[in-house]
């Protein structure tokens, strides 16, 4: 690897061939890294960097454990600091047999590489019988398997069906120590009513130390399959990766203890958070796209609902690129008022420009105390519906101003990204239903609180 410093700022990057030394708009090698602490505080001064990074032990581990050769591309990757911390915490947890845990790493931060490295390091641990990387969709099964094999050719095989999964679980072959599968196949394997008697065949593994790593664990780990895994493998350790953990504020599953009901959170399922790298960290590090904000400022003061105010929205759509996405903060009134606003709203809906409507809490902005909405507009929308997200109740109350915490932002981002429906929070509404409501976009009409 190369290390570059002017003493105040220090960067490092992988020593690749010319093919992988490409420049971006800032004339920087990609990807480049800055050392950071576990809470993502940058360690940039050369003296501090050298003390932490250039010791023989740390440098040796970086090269031998935390660099990945992408064989198919003949490219070296260095894991980012937050990825290394996540892998270390999982490996240490297993080495010391300290129960379960989850990793909160935001979408786009490279969770696949992190989970791959954790899995391959566990492959050489003689105390571990098997390591299963579990996804919740068939397409993710294929995608994850392809990514793992890109990092290390032939490291995981395809499980075409549950029978193949069971055979690999029972195999002593070193190549079958790391297995990628779906939660559905795993559920069938542990189903006592399955006519193939998979569960009985798996009895030899019951008391073995099995490690389960769950991708997108906020989606898949609140049902019967999770309960079946814990009951059948009492000595298993469970780890989850998620970009959107379930907290009490956004929980929808309930557990009943006697007569008392409480919402189930990610912490309830996985015991403790091992490491966090949120969307605010990722934007700061330029690992995900930043928010690009344009301001429309006319030469005179204007009032909400005036002609100039409407012109700003229409002009913005006009200048939006074909593949572009635009988010505008507006008062809720534009969603249901009549007159010229209704005509503009109807035109945008019929042209397929309105993609998402997001309702935000009140008192978020210094300039106004009223609740506002975010209108997401596109020129080439993929879906023939509008996504409504009602986030008005998800905030931290302040004395004069309310705040959106990272988990509230992550919840909005996840709902927008996955377009997943959730009771009393998000819903995809067809254009037919919107037209029946005379193009009224009042959020409470479609998503009740």
In a few lines, what is going on in this structure?
By secondary structure, the protein is an alpha/beta fold.
Counting helices, strands and paired strands, the structural category is alpha/beta
What is the tally of beta strands?
A: 17
Radius of gyration: 25 Å
Helicity level, as a percent range? Answer: 25-40%
Order of neighbouring strands in the sheet with most strands: 7-6-8-9-5-12
Describe the largest sheet.
6 strands, parallel
CA-to-CA gap between the ends? 53 Å
Mean pLDDT: 82
Shape: globular
Strand content: 15-25%
- State the oligomer: single chain
Give an overview of the whole structure.
By secondary structure, the chain is an alpha/beta fold. It is 34% helix and 19% strand. It contains 17 helices and 17 strands. The strands form 5 sheets. The chain has a 6-stranded parallel sheet, with helices on both faces. A 5-stranded mixed sheet has the order 13-15-14-16-17, sandwiched between helices. Strand 1 and strand 2 form a beta hairpin. Helix 3 runs parallel beside helix 4, helix 6 packs across helix 7 and helix 7 packs across helix 10. It starts with a strand and ends with a helix. The relative contact order is 0.09. The model has no long low-confidence stretch (mean pLDDT 82).
């Amino acid at each position: 690897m190369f290390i570059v410093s002017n003493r105040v700022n220090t960067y490092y990057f992988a020593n690749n061939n010319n093919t992988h030394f490409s420049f971006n708009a800032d004339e920087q090698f990609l990807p480049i890294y800055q050392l950071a602490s576990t809470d993502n505080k940058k360690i940039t001064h050369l003296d501090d960097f050298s003390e932490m990074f250039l010791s023989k032990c740390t440098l040796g581990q970086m090269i031998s454990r935390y660099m990945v050769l992408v064989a198919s591309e003949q490219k070296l990757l260095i894991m980012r600091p937050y990825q290394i911390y996540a892998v270390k915490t999982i490996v240490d947890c297993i080495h010391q047999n300290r129960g379960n845990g989850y990793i909160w790493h935001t979408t786009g931060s490279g969770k696949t590489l992190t989970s791959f490295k954790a899995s391959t390091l566990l492959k050489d641990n003689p105390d571990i019988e098997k390591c299963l990387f579990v996804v919740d969709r068939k397409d993710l099964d294929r995608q994850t398997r392809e990514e793992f094999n890109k990092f290390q050719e032939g490291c995981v095989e395809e499980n075409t069906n549950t029978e193949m999964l069971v055979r690999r679980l029972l195999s002593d072959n070193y190549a079958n120590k790391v297995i990628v599968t779906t939660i559905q196949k795993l559920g069938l394997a542990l189903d006592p009513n399955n006519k193939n008697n998979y569960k009985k065949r798996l009895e030899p593994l019951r008391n073995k130390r099995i490690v389960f790593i769950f991708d997108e664990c906020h989606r898949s780990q609140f049902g019967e399959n999770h309960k079946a895994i814990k009951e059948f493998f009492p000595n298993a350790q469970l780890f989850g990766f998620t970009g959107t953990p379930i907290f009490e504020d956004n929980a929808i599953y309930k557990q009943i203890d006697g007569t008392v009901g409480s919402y189930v959170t990610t912490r309830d399922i996985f015991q403790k958070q091992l490491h966090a790298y949120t969307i605010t960290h990722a934007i700061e590090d330029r690992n995900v796209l930043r928010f690009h904000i344009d301001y429309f400022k006319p030469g005179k003061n204007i009032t909400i609902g005036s002609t100039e105010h409407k012109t700003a929205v229409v002009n913005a759509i006009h200048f939006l690129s074909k593949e572009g996405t635009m988010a505008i903060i507006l008062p809720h009134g534009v969603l249901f008022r009549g007159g010229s606003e209704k005509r503009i709203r109807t035109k945008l809906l019929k042209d397929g420009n309105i993609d998402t409507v997001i309702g935000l809490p009140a008192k978020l902005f210094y300039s106004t105390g009223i609740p506002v909405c975010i209108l997401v507009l596109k020129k080439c929308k993929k879906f023939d519906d509008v996504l409504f997200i009602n986030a008005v109740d998800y905030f931290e109350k302040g004395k004069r101003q309310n705040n959106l915490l990272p988990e509230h932002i992550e919840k909005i981002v996840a709902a927008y990204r996955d377009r997943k429906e959730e009771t009393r929070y998000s819903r995809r509404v067809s254009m037919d239903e919107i037209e029946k409501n005379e193009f009224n976009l009042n959020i409470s009409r479609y998503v009740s609180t």
